[in-house]
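Internal QA ticket QA-208
Title: Verify multi-chain structure generation after dependency bump
Assignee: T.L.

Test input:
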Amino acid sequence: MTWLTGILKDWAASDFAWRFRTSPPVIFATVVFLALIFCAAAADIIAPHNPFDPATLEIMDSRLPPAWLEGGTTKYLLGTDEQGRDILSSIFYGMRISLLVGLAAVLFSVTIGVLLGLAAGYFGGWVDALIMRLGDVQLSFPTIMIAFFIDGVAKIVMPVAMREEMRFYVVILAIGVADWVQFARTVRASTMVERRKDYVAAARISKVSGARIVLTHILPNTIGPVLVLATLGLGVAILTEAILSFLGLGMPPSQPSLGTLIRAGNDLLLSGEWWISLFPGAALVLLVLSVNMVGDWLRDVLNPRLR
Amino acid sequence: MISLLATRLTSVVLVMLVVSGLSFCVFNFLGDPVNNILGVNATLEQREELRVALGLDQTTIVQFWRFVERAAVGDFGVSYRNRQPVIDLMLVRLPATLELVLTATLTALLIGIPMGIYTALRPKGLLSRIVQLVSLLGISMPQFLIGMLLILIFSVELRWLSAFGRGETVRIGWWTTGLLTVSGLKALIMPTITLAVFQISMIMRLVRGEMLEVFRADFIKFARARGLSDRAVYLTHALRNSLLPVITVVGLQIGSLIAFAIVVEAVFQWPGMGLLILQAIEFADFPVMSAYLAFVGFSFVMINLIVDLTYLLVDPRMRVK
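Actual output:
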């Protein structure tokens, strides 16, 4: 275990750790983010109720206000929805789906973006022109619009029986495809710098294949800025998913994300039952805000040039 | 300058080609134009006859060209859902969305620029700090939540404003406007704020950042050395140079406002193009989707082009060479 304590000691003495220790807002945001991840991951254990188990739902308990308002009970801290589901538990489970979709979508767009960026930067010529012009065309439209269209068309084209269970993957695909360009651009730029360096020439002379040079030699040297962009992209992806779900194009009510919960509560807003939609909304804002603060800080510390 | 124009025009053509290709795919391959016109109960002979009449027996390229020709004069076929020409449906909804987007842009400029100037001039003031904190929230909050909060406060609790619709409208030719009646203007308030909050925050941060940058430039030092008043230095010299990037960003943001108008229209049941496309997706109304795609593509391309040209006009450095 000595190597582990060694690594930890090195890390604690690093510039990075020092800048982390000396910026209280970021510590706070990180703690909030980790706490939210914990709530989402451990929803099965820590949620006071299981919103997916119809046996535990009592219709008499529907639309109860939060505990501190008149008519609320401590059994349901943040109140209940139309079918008597506990809002707090729904938020934990919903956050899990929001986070999973967001992470998967970012991973997907990073994969597409990095591969296309490497190809464009390494091979140049018409490959580069094709990929980057495609990116230019896509960038003239907002991400949300592209995700909206992919999602909308996929929703219709799919056979009815598969629609609900495939939603998860369709949403990930839609958001992932909509957001690859920024990763491709960054990777392309650093690949074009790297490929002229001596170590690449050395690898070429040693008859290493092109694909191997790109993936094992160049890729590790281009990935730094991508990680920072990916953190910032996570906030955008979670928000995009929430918007799609709010419009009824994202996650279905059988697998509700935070956006789906807000959509469901939106109809009850006019009758004054604000807690059904606004508590999941507050959770969403907290999640996105903490991700964005950590992402902004990472960008400033690791790569100020990305600003 | 000529070469710059040429690159811009090439990219316009490229984008329009991709967009019309996608729009054509939605119209032709996802939708079934024959069913669209005849309904499901037509006989095989009738179908074949119509296929030939519509040119569906031709090659895809020829069909694509015909689609573009018809789209250019606004003919996108008939809506599956209410059997009206798509172009009519679009024209009825267009004024609502455009009025919403334009008032939101105007609001964002009128509030964002002065706030940006103020926070740049007094970066340590209490009001500046509050404004900055609020703007951070404005950037992180999804629009639909802002809209729902407004509805909760002004419609449910205070009962001042109606939570949905456009209010009374006045017809001027084919254009219906809500800007001329009291109820129309009142109905516009909450959707406009909802749509503008993000823009206000962004313009404010942009103007502030640019002004702080410009303050460090040499020509500001010279202006001070010449003994010009603070007012002249800040508002004439600094502000003019800070507003250049604002033009680009505001122009490009009008495009994303059209996208986010879908969300705002869903929250406030605003009868614009956004609600139209949401209903079209729900009912698999492909001609409407195809037309909307073409409309969005065309407006974005035009906005980008206008922004580039404005830049040429405003920034003398771009005109040299």
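Spot checks passed. Chain A touches chain B at residues 133, 136-137, 140-142, 144-145, 148-149, 152-153, 155-157, 235, 239, 242-243, 246-249, 262, 266, 269-270, 272, 274, 277-278, 281, 284-285, 288-289, 292 (CB under 8 Å).
Status: verified.
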